[in-house]
Automatic annotation (TrEMBL):
Matching Pfam families: SBP_bac_8 (PF13416)
UniProt cross-references to PANTHER family, sorted A to Z: MALTOSE-BINDING PERIPLASMIC PROTEIN (PTHR30061), MALTOSE_MALTODEXTRIN-BINDING PERIPLASMIC PROTEIN (PTHR30061:SF50)
Cellular component, GO, one term: ATP-binding cassette (ABC) transporter complex, substrate-binding subunit-containing
Record protein name field: Family 1 extracellular solute-binding protein
Stated family: Belongs to the bacterial solute-binding protein 1 family.
Organism: Bifidobacterium reuteri DSM 23975
Signal peptide residues on this chain, from the entry's feature table: 1-30
PROSITE patterns: PROKAR_LIPOPROTEIN
Length: 414
């Protein structure tokens, strides 16, 4: 499989100047006619619902930019969440270009179903992720190479009732707990790690790709975080967010703060009216110091299949679909918040408070959600520990012991 990647990459590198329209790369016939190719593309149904949807619009724009190709498009409805599961069954018949969720990168690499980006694409990606190391890490494999280009980010942040808090209050979880009801998904293993990682804990090493490093949420600092969470659970202003109770609480007036993502923005606005606010994650007080909460972040990505018959065009099109202008168009057509750092200052996006909260959270208060296979064994023990805290099985008297037992439970799983 590695030989196939290297062969495809060699072809792409040889065609680095292909965008100038030179026929020396072998894509056009001696007579100068465009090369006839077929590209199978997997995308979400929403992106290709009509002939003038985002995908079809981008395909037409790509054709204009690349007259060296005469392309027959075969678009298929495969959501990003399903791509890896389908592609790994037989990469040889998977799409040439497809969208996938970044937490599936490890699965795709194990299956040999994802191609490494070319040098020109890497230059594009470096510009798009400038100042946002987390977004670049979402498409970085265990080998340190990059596979795919992020189209949109994915993380969670904070919504709140503006009339309850000052601008200073919303920077501190403890300040908000002193003034209002704070709902947090304590028993959800996608959210709970924010406290441990914020305090310096690591999950599969610094960049989330070192399986041997395992889960490091223990020690004195880990015990201190657990103690903080015991106090949080016992705080009368804390509400565990489960099965939509946080959003319902916003509407009824029983909750003033929730932690969720852009997918709930419309519901928050409806429930709070003009009193809604949104911000990146706050800090919390640990051992007398302010510690920044850090959310998991991932991305929706476009990549190319190394089994494609057209590696140069596939790499170019995957990069094009996640390019700056394509992301801008995606936002305008479907309100999908872009991952591109350069678009944070776009006038329309700059005045979108939810978009800014997501962009700021990913850039400033997040870590990459690991995509290696070992991550599959992380979730259940973490959820169980969160339940133990919520059910008051974890106390100050046993917090250090049970935190270490939680860490030990991973040793047989990872």
């Amino acid at each position: 499989m590695m030989a196939r990647w290297k062969k495809a990459l060699a072809a792409i590198s040889a065609c680095a100047l292909f965008v100038t329209g030179l026929s020396a790369c072998g894509s056009a016939s001696a007579g100068g006619d465009a090369e006839r190719i077929t590209l199978v593309v997997w995308a979400s149904q929403e992106d290709q619902a009509n002939t003038d949807s985002w995908l079809q619009t981008m395909e037409a724009a790509f054709e204009q930019q690349h007259p060296e190709y005469s392309i027959t498009w075969k678009n298929q409805n495969v959501a990003s969440a399903d791509a890896a599961g389908i592609a790994k069954q037989d990469p040889t018949v998977a799409a040439d270009v497809y969208t996938f969720a970044s937490d599936q990168l490890g699965t795709l690499l194990d299956a040999g179903a994802i191609g490494q980006v070319s040098d020109p694409t890497m230059k594009q990606l470096a510009k798009q992720t400038k100042g946002n190391a987390t977004m670049l890490q979402t498409v970085t494999g265990e080998d340190g190479n990059v596979y795919g280009v992020p189209l949109a980010g994915n993380t969670w942040f904070m919504y709140y009732r503006k009339s309850k808090f000052t601008e200073q209050d919303i920077t501190s979880l403890d300040a908000m707990l002193a003034k209002g009801k704070v709902s947090f998904p304590l028993t959800n293993s996608w959210y709970l790690p924010a406290f441990y990682i914020g305090a310096g804990g690591t999950l599969f090493g610094k960049d989330g790709t070192d399986a041997k490093s395992g889960v490091q949420f223990g020690g004195a600092i880990g015990a201190a975080v657990t103690d903080y969470l015991v106090d949080l659970r016992n705080n009368p202003n804390f509400v565990n967010d489960k099965n939509g109770s946080g959003l319902a609480g916003l509407k009824s007036g029983k909750v003033d703060v929730v932690f969720t993502g852009n997918w709930d923005a419309a519901t928050v606005r409806e429930n709070l009216g003009d009193d809604w606010g949104v911000a990146k994650l706050p800090s919390f007080t640990l051992n007398g110091k302010q510690v920044q909460m850090k959310a998991f972040a991932g991305s929706t990505v476009y990549g190319w299949n190394p089994y494609t018959k057209h590696p140069v065009a596939a790499d170019q099109f995957a990069a094009f679909l996640s390019g700056t202008e394509s992301q801008r168009k995606h936002y305008k057509m479907r309100s999908v918040i872009p991952s591109d750092s350069e678009l944070a200052s776009d006038p329309a996006i700059e005045k979108d408070a939810v978009a800014q909260a997501q962009i700021d959270t990913i850039a400033e208060t997040s870590v990459v959600q690991p995509s290696i296979a070992e991550m599959n064994n992380f979730w259940v023990p973490c959820e169980n520990f969160g339940n133990s805290i919520y059910n008051k099985e974890v106390t100050h008297a046993n917090s250090a012991k049970l935190t270490e037992q939680w860490m030990a439970s991973y040793q047989s799983l990872l």
